[in-house]
Structure formats: C-alpha cells, structure tokens
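Hi R.,

Here's the chain you asked about this morning:
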Amino acid sequence: MASSTRVSGRRSTAKKASPLRPAGASKKGAAAGRTSKRRQGRPQNPEEAVGRDALIAATRELLKTKSPAKLTRTEIARYAGVDPGLVRYYFGKTSHLLAEVVQQVITEMRVARRTRADFKEVEERLEHRIADAVRLFQGNPFLHQIVIELIFSGVQPRAREMWQKETIAPALEEWSAVIDKGVEEGKFRRVDPRFMQVLVIAAGEFYATGRSLLEDMFGADAVDGDLERAYIEFVRDIMLYGLVRRDK
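And the predicted structure, written out as tokens:
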C-alpha cells in the first residue's frame, strides 16, 4: 500500500492525535484537565456511560438523511439516548465527532481494498470497486461534504496530507494495478487511473444523493428493489467498454 499510516493499528486506550483527531478529542474527550465549565458534560460514572462508538454510530445513522451542517450535539445525543454532555465529554466539539466518522470510513475503505485484492479477474475487481463505491455513499451520502469541511477547508493543516496518503494514494495504486493487469492480458488499453477514480466516485455519490430523481424516473419501488444491481452492472459495462483495446 502507498500509505504507511494505519488507523486500525492504533490502540484504543492511548490513541495518538491524528490530523483528523485533534489532541483535544482523545478517548475521554476534552473534559480532563480543562476548566470546570468543560467538566459539566462529564458523566457521573464514565465506566458505565455510553461509549464513543455508540455516539459515532448514532452520528453516522443521522447523516444518512441530514447534512452535517444541520446536525446538532443535542440531536445526536437524543438519537443515542444519552445526555448531550457526553458528546462534549468524549469529543469536545461536534466537528471532532465528524472527524471520527471520517476515520471510520477510511478504515472501512481500507478493508474493502484488501477484499478486492483477492479477486483474480480484472473485470471482477472493477465490478466490486463500483459496487463498493455505490454502497459507501449510500451509507455515507454526505461524506464529501464532511471531507470538504474538515480536510479541504484548511482548518486542520495536516488533514489533507493524511487524506492523500490514506485514501487517494491507495485508491490510485489499486486502479493502476487493475489497469496494468488488464493491459498485460490484452483486455484493456492504457488510461489514466485518476480519471477512473473520479468516474467511480461520481457514479457512487450520485446514486446516493440523487434518489429523488431516480424515483421520478424508475419509481420508488424500483429504487428500493433491484435498481442498485442494475445500476452497478450498467456502470461496469460502460467502463469496461471504454477500457477495451481499440485495435487498429
């Protein structure tokens, strides 16, 4: 892999601060060592309090239908069934909680890449890459919006470098391997892997965010039924035919 940084390899009890996880948003949150005002959100018994993962899960579930700009600490806590102070206790700010969501997604993307590497046929790897993108954005329709706000805004200087190492570089490396193999087997022509990445991201994100348009064209029953499979196969065929060698 192109990246030497591994999110999943960090210890949960003593995590180092990453560009997306500020030092003030450690496992026990920003409560310890701060002013009494900050400690107001501290639970009476931290060992019995709902964990960080439950709050992250609640946030991800809410983000399926609500943009990050409209998501509040109170709403997250209500969905998780806990006091809003726990969000501040574990994460400090809502933006730090959103950063943890991105960290989880990065880890899930890494696992998906490892799984795809097991497929031998380039056509199969291509299809699974498209399917993973479609399902990634269905589960995280506002992912790009969060990434823009947290990473590309410049609020956290090292975040963009981390994103490039842990997300962009491995994705382009994977595309290069697929294209190289296809060319070696005489199936594909040489194309720029960066365009492949852009195309798959666009296809995946549209299917998640363009539901209303899809319902108007195909009907709500189709969108909730077999349309996803048909869409993935369509995008696969478009990409495959675009990659086919053009013999003179």
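The radius of gyration is 21 Å.

Let me know if you need anything else.
M.
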